[in-house]
Amino acid sequence: MTNLNPQGKQMADESMVRNLDAQARAIWPQEIDLFRRYPLPENARILDAGCGTGEISWRLAELFPKAGVAGIDIIDAHLNLARSRYANLAPRLTFEHHSVFDLTFPSRSFDLVVCRHVLHSIPHADRVVAQFARITKPGGYLHLIPEDYGMLHFARGIPDPRDFWHEVAPKFAEATNTDLFIGRHIFGILSALKLEEIHIDYVVVDTIRVPRETFAAIIEAWRDGYVESIAEYTKFSAKLATDHFDQMIANIRDPRGYAVWMVPVVSARVPTQT
Ligand SMILES: C[S@@+](CC[C@H](N)C(=O)[O-])C[C@H]1O[C@@H](n2cnc3c(N)ncnc32)[C@H](O)[C@@H]1O
Description:
Helix content: 40-55%
Mean pLDDT: 97
Radius of gyration: 18 Å
Number of strands: 8
Shape: globular
CATH architecture: 3-Layer(aba) Sandwich
Number of domains: 1
Strand content: 15-25%
Distance between the termini: 34 Å
CATH superfamily: Vaccinia Virus protein VP39
Largest sheet: 8 strands, mixed
Low-confidence stretches: none
Bound molecules: S-adenosylmethionine
CATH class: Alpha Beta
């Protein structure tokens, strides 16, 4: 049977807590204006599906100060951390154990369903997105970050990060039954669901827009969380994978170096007439 949580170990690792913190600091300053576009009611109901440690759930609760924000995830340690960190925003902000594969919310429950950095890591992402559309109110929005590991670029080096990503992304995806290129496939998934107003914007995490140390912290966390499974699923040993990540980190820290991660931020509206 398909493993519905093939990155469970990495998602629960201490390095993921660091990663989610760094990713939020890198991405949110550009993403916030994309959230501001949605014409939400004042008392909107927002779901943060696969909320992790709640990095974006609490930012959404502050951005929409009368909204109810529900974060759901399957890692209790993350949920507990989020509950204790953001207790000041309860009960408007809640964190509950729910799987995106078993969304028991009634249809048409939410004005906005957010799902960031999750869809690339699970199988059957299309089915999950269909469920997001089901639980969103007519006229409400989906806001997704579907990662794409062909949208990461580093300077040439020794070892060369291009060789790494070219080999690792498809092999890792194949072994885990996931789509690590879903950033370019999500348009088709949303179109097939007949959603409206599909927008694909990009947050540009690069060495000009984002502090080098923040960008480096993301790659360090990826290294610390993923080299073992990369060694299991690809021809790269853990040592070679570590060398590659260290090369990327050195590229980012080099004051004359340039590196970029293009992060697709995707939105779509659920039709008012169904
Ligand atoms: C990379 S983290 C992203 C966290 C958060 N969305 C953010 O942007 O900071 C992915 C999260 O998805 C969660 N996840 C994975 N499979 C899930 C599932 N079936 N149901 C709910 N959450 C899931 C993981 O536990 C992890 O916390």
